[in-house]
Write a structure and sequence with these properties.
- By secondary structure, the chain is of the alpha/beta class.
- It is about 45% helix and about 15% strand.
- Strands 1, 2, 3, 4, 5, 6, 7, 8, 9 and 10 form a ten-stranded mixed beta sheet that branches.
- Helix 2 links the parallel strand 2 and strand 3.
- The protein is globular.
- The chain starts with a strand and ends in a 5-residue tail after the last helix.
- About 0% of the residues have low confidence.
Length: about 400
Amino acid sequence: MCKVSVIVPVYRVEKYVDRCMKSLLRQTLTDIEVVCICEKDDSSYQKLFAYQQADARVHLVEKKNTGVSSARNAGMGAAKGKYLAFVDADDWIERYALETLYHTAEQYDTQIIAYGIWPTAEPGSDRRGIFDCTPVRNVLYHGNGMKALFYEHGSRPYIGNKFYNRQFLAENDIWFNESMRLGEDQLLQFEAFGKAENICFVKDKLYHYDIKRNDSAMNGCRQQDAEADSFRLLTIIMDKKREQYPDAYDKEYMAWLLQEYGWLVNQHKQSASEDRMNKIRSISGYFQELSAGKYVHELPLEYQYLYERFQKYREGGWNDAYIRLPYREYDAFMKKQTEGFCQKIMTAERCFIGVRRLYEIFVFHEIWHWILTGMIRLVQRYKIYRARKIKIPS
């Protein structure tokens, strides 16, 4: 038994694996193990074997590559730590990350911790959504895991910025679905968050994500058949909802559907293929099942427009006007839903925190993130203001 097991699936990342391994073996928390899953024919295998020979904390699991979910499951099966962390071999974590997460988990008796994630370079416009996938406050949810899942930044979709109690996962038989090529991490979170008693969110950005690599584990299969896989994920999640929460969380699932699948009816120009129309009708059916009409008026105005558009498409209507979604208003809506369900927590302060922040600003281009994000949000606010002055065609 050790304090933390770090699961590292390795596949064709020889160029990056040293950076990852060094960040793990130099952790301020030393009572850890690093479980690497790699096939023998991979170019990284010999490097990992050398790390195993040099450091007894490294355990190399030889396994033929059959996908990242299969590799992570193999790592979870081999792990002996009280807690599990997941790090992709092309990413890395801060030197004090595991110590911070371990002590937070022990202090608040948590089953899950979601912590800050940060890209190593300025993401393009198509990937700026990563900023909505990192916690923005230090809070604890007690007995309200599904509220945390739907309304707290950082809960979905990535697995890399999650810290789990291993016994909690084992007792609830929670594993990655190996048949999923896309969304396997989000599916696991839908299962785990609903069963967790205590969930912490830590806004400190401890995980560094190499956003430049299109073939990284976090981006796996997002290029091929992404739409079909995304709808398979939707079907599974809605089936589990009927099974586990038949009379609960209707509003939460409705808002999630609009967030995740609103793009179907929110395109500048598109051809109304039969396949797309079937998907739109399917989601409209889910809205009817969720009695969405009772709750949609509580959402920001633009989300109400999306909901109405789904209903009109169901009747064969079509409109190519684009609706700009209001990030700030939706954030305020999310925060309002969590009132009374979570409490603020304190995380340990570290020495030289100012020096570390300066290092991150320059090395990880954080200053450009803040400047560009601020400019983009100002433009968005202005366009939303104009859109509300002018009637949006429907």
